[in-house]
Design brief:
Elements: H1 2-15, E1 32-35, E2 38-42, H2 55-68, H3 76-80, H4 83-96, E3 100-104, H5 107-118, E4 124-128, H6 133-141, E5 145-149, H7 154-162, E6 169-174, H8 186-196, E7 199-203, H9 218-222, E8 229-234, E9 244-248, H10 250-259, H11 261-264, H12 271-285, H13 288-304, E10 311-312, E11 319-325, H14 327-339, E12 342-343, E13 346-347, E14 357-362, H15 369-383
Parallel strand pairs: 2-12, 4-5, 4-6, 6-7, 7-8
Antiparallel strand pairs: 1-2, 3-9, 8-9, 10-11, 11-14, 13-14
Helix pairs in contact: 2-12, 4-12, 5-6, 5-10, 7-8, 13-15
């Protein structure tokens, strides 16, 4: 039976410390959650501003459902594109300083749609080796020539661009790398795009709402703007809700509307989510105090984790990875935290390279200094 082969593969993953399993939450997203009946202090949510259970968003979602119902009923290009979808796209474009924006159901679908619509056979995609899986899948599905460069290695990328003499060129990169927490050198990437007549697709899933003036993302953080930049951000992390959007020149958005399969052939997101996201944008814009608190927590954590046997990777973002090394040791450390009521996920290959299993600590503006101090003290206890 073919099922026996499947079970054998799962057993092998288990032996290597790579088996993935779900945990069931019984509470809203918050620093303090209930998982499988037990209370935990959580450091593994991407709810960076603590908006996922914000009363203003809950109220906006309820009002949106009362006005528009529960489901969109059809794709955006049929009858699923509502006034509130349109309003959100307009406001998102203004917020990130782009001429137009387009909503997608998820960031994964957005990345698939952009790459597939803009490049194909005879074109080239240049990709950072630590890019998110959605960008990796997108470039493979595009049928374009794939050229990967070492993480943030501008010199190698420049050489690859110089060696490419025909076809469209698309550089794709995370803005904040989801497992390392560091930033891409966006100004240098943009300079290469100008030099080699290329596009730059930026995945700002972990920067939107957190970085830049008023949380406008990594483009604002670096103070860069260019029609060559195609900007993607997700709306289920710092924004606290669900979905994603792409912002770019109108001609790019029109191309996506006509050629991005992951947009054309899927039902629109529930309009009520757009109602909640309009309120989320207001909270993000007003969230300087939350972002300042988040930076204080980052500084407190980094200072407090000095002297541990595991290396805290360099990051100025809410993603603070503690490099452990082998898979079983990372799982053991995560389990030790869980026994003490703290939930931090162990991240293992293939999500990260072999030999770099880690704890991925994520901080939220909803955490208190006391919460972070408890995590610091517990990690030091486990190190002893």
């Amino acid at each position: 039976m073919p099922f026996e082969a499947l079970q054998k593969e799962l057993d092998q993953r288990t032996a290597l410390g790579l088996l993935r399993q779900r945990r069931t939450l019984q509470s809203p997203q918050s620093p303090h959650i209930v998982v499988d009946g037990k209370s935990y202090l959580s450091f593994c949510s991407n709810d960076y501003l603590g908006l996922a259970n914000h009363p203003r968003l809950v109220s906006a979602l309820q009002q949106g459902a009362a006005q528009y119902g529960v489901g969109a009923g059809a794709a955006h290009l049929v009858s699923g594109h509502t006034h509130v979808h349109q309003q959100l796209e307009l406001e998102l474009a203004v917020f990130v300083g782009k001429p137009a924006a387009l909503l997608f159901s998820t960031g994964y679908m957005a990345n698939l749609g952009v790459v597939q619509a803009l490049v194909g056979k005879g074109d080239s995609v240049f990709a950072d080796k630590l890019n998110h899986a959605s960008l990796n899948d997108a470039m493979q599905m595009s049928r374009a020539s794939v050229k990967r460069y070492r993480h943030n290695d501008i010199a190698q990328l420049a050489l690859l661009l110089e060696q490419t003499v025909s076809g469209r060129k698309l550089i794709i990169s995370d803005a904040v790398f989801s497992m390392d927490g560091d930033l891409a050198p966006l100004p240098e990437l943009l300079a290469l795009c100008e030099q080699h007549d290329a596009w730059l697709l930026i995945d700002d899933a972990h920067g939107f709402g957190v970085l830049g003036d008023q949380g406008r993302g990594t483009l604002a953080h670096f103070n860069i703007a260019s029609p060559r930049i195609i900007y993607m951000a997700t709306l289920g992390k710092a924004a606290g809700v669900f979905g994603a959007f792409v912002a770019a020149k109108q001609v790019v958005i029109d191309t996506l509307i006509n050629h991005a399969n992951s947009y054309v052939y899927t039902t629109a997101t529930p309009p009520a989510l757009s109602s909640a996201l309009l309120e989320s944008l207001r909270l993000i814009t007003q969230g300087e105090e939350q972002r300042a608190h988040l930076q204080q927590l980052i500084a407190r954590l980094r200072s407090g984790l000095r002297g541990l046997p595991w290396r805290l990777m360099p990051s100025t973002t809410p993603i603070q990875p503690v490099l452990v090394g082998d898979n079983q040791s990372a799982l053991k450390l995560s389990a030790g935290l869980q026994e003490r009521g703290i939930w931090v996920a162990a991240i293992r290959p293939p999500t990260v390279p072999q030999g770099t299993a880690r704890l991925r600590i994520t901080l939220s503006a909803a955490h208190s200094v006391t919460d972070v101090t408890r995590l610091i003290e517990t990690l030091h206890e486990l190190a002893r």
